[in-house]
Amino acid sequence: MTQVVLVGPGKDVERVHSAMAALRPALSFCRPDEPQAAEADIAICWAPPPGSLGALPNLRLIHSVGAGADNIISEVSRDKNVLICRIVDPGHCQGMFEYVLWGVLHYHRHFDSMLQNQRTGTWQRPAQRAAYETTVGVMGLGTLGKACASGLARLGFNVRGWARGTHTLEGVKTFDSTQSGDFLSGVDILICLLPLTEETRGILCADTFSQLAPGAAVINCGRGAHLREDDLLQALEARSIRGALLDVFSVEPLPLGHPLWQTDGVIVTPHVASSASFKVIAQQILDNIDRLQAGELPVNRVDGDLGY
Ligand code: NDP
Ligand code: OXD
């Protein structure tokens, strides 16, 4: 019998549980501190507390309720018998595109400086640029990065995309991980849609910022630990970076009193760039449980060695 353990606390695990229970009332759920947890073969989690997954001896599948699984991988030994899966959803792509588009338009059409000017009653009309004159660089050409890069290219922006391997994407000039210098050079708006891995941790740093166009803007929708916060604060102070739209943070919720809440040029949003619907998440997890029970491999697996 399948036993599901809900490992929390974590973003949305409770709501995914309710949606799964509604779709599959007979499925047995427990918490890590209940005796049935010792038998659990499936774990559902977001940011499992340290050691919590290692204490569950019979797991075959650990399912993230989100698109990223970095917080799970860091908790699991490289036991190849335990599969890790994540959520991949077209609705997620649409949501992310909407968020990124808002950010790109904010900087491209100078709404940042107009909002600033309003505070001082300054009537100043910034020159309008054509979309093709703004170079947008998308880091990560996975499910979400591709959707955002393609969507922006369709709107006429000069779009570049960067990934580990080589990619072909209509309307987008693509670069692989050996070509980061060419990718970054002259970018006006840099968007991070990378997974957090040992290679990408801290990638939004002074060295990266120094390669962008002067006064570039940064949009981070990946993970908080992609960003070296002190480097950003210094770049903003020096005005080499004009602004940052940040959705993700090393500590979430972003603590009260953290400098990023108050820094001019920084927009903070509470990890809302995009979410799949709870019904979609629940159904995808149930489908993967069914595949496992039928002796098939679940889909949307994460490669524990690559880290995404
Ligand atoms: P995918 O796994 O589909 O794509 C990851 C992309 O990153 C791939 O193109 C991959 O390259 C590239 N990549 C990985 N490592 C490197 C590297 N070292 N150098 C260059 N490129 C690299 O992820 P998704 O698109 O589904 O999601 C991306 C991230 O977005 C998630 O991991 C999560 O952190 C974040 N996210 C944030 C949300 C929010 O609301 N803020 C919501 C959902 C996700 P290649 O294709 O060559 O393998
Ligand atoms: C994420 C998500 O991975 O919200 O950030 O799905």
UniProtKB/TrEMBL annotation:
**One Pfam family from the record:** 2-Hacid_dh_C
Q: Highest taxon of the source?
A: Bacteria
| Chain ranges of the D-isomer specific 2-hydroxyacid dehydrogenase NAD-binding domain | 103-273
Name the Gene3D superfamilies on file: NAD(P)-binding Rossmann-like Domain (3.40.50.720)
List UniProt keywords, sorted A-Z.
NAD, Oxidoreductase
Q: Which InterPro entries match?
A: D-isomer_DH_NAD-bd (IPR006140), NAD(P)-bd_dom_sf (IPR036291)
PANTHER family tied to this protein: 2-HACID_DH_C DOMAIN-CONTAINING PROTEIN, D-ISOMER SPECIFIC 2-HYDROXYACID DEHYDROGENASE NAD-BINDING DOMAIN-CONTAINING PROTEIN
Q: What is this protein called?
A: Glyoxylate/hydroxypyruvate reductase A
